[in-house]
Amino acid sequence: MSCRSQTQLSIPYETPPVPSGLRRYQQTGDLHFITFSCYRRQPKLASPSARFLFERSLQQAQRRYQCCVIGYVVMPEHVHLLVSEPEKGQLSTALQALKQSVARRLALRGAEPFWQARYYDFNVWTEEKRVEKLRYMHRNPVARGLVAKPEDWAWSSYRHYLTGAVGTVEIESEWTAFRRERMRVRPQIRSCPVRRFPPWQSQDGAPRHPGPVRGFTEALGRPTRH
Fold first, then answer.
1. Residue 217: its pLDDT value, please?
2. Among the listed residues 59, 54, 25, the one whose alpha carbon sits nearest the alpha carbon of residue 37
3. What is the pTM of this model?
4. Where along the chain do its domains lie?
């Protein structure tokens, strides 16, 4: 049986400090809930252009290391990711490359680092935890008072889960699986631990909201879509 990290995020929506002596359990086949912050929690991602650049770098890292992005949110001073372990290389290497890519473009010749040196890693191995972490991420901008509703924050995966919208970052979800099936496209990443469900359909055969996403909207406290 694989060992898994036991430290959980605190209840407030502030980014928790990375504990000293933190042990990471990678190469377990689990999803990973990742958090890393800008240097000294400065809002280095405060501008829309900086957040968009991070999204592009995330998509590039996703393709290069062949890992699945289940969800994400880019905040002004920190980032949350829910990702699979990469098929090429290790997760720590992929995260380092992602952070370096963003820092090279945004820090320029700054006198101080762009990112804090470490990151927080929580192993996610159940459906309940997956929904919990997605809910936490997507509600972060609302809890911080940045927007009134999760869908108003453009730099997260919430809109994809709500409507199936395709954004800068490819999100591995039931929406994406359904779209691939209709286009008869095989997924490039075969080891992503995301459950597959048949799409919900109406009586005339038209696709409806996928079942797992319905449960996700319920977890957010929003009415179930029909």
1. 53
2. 54
3. 0.76
4. 31-219
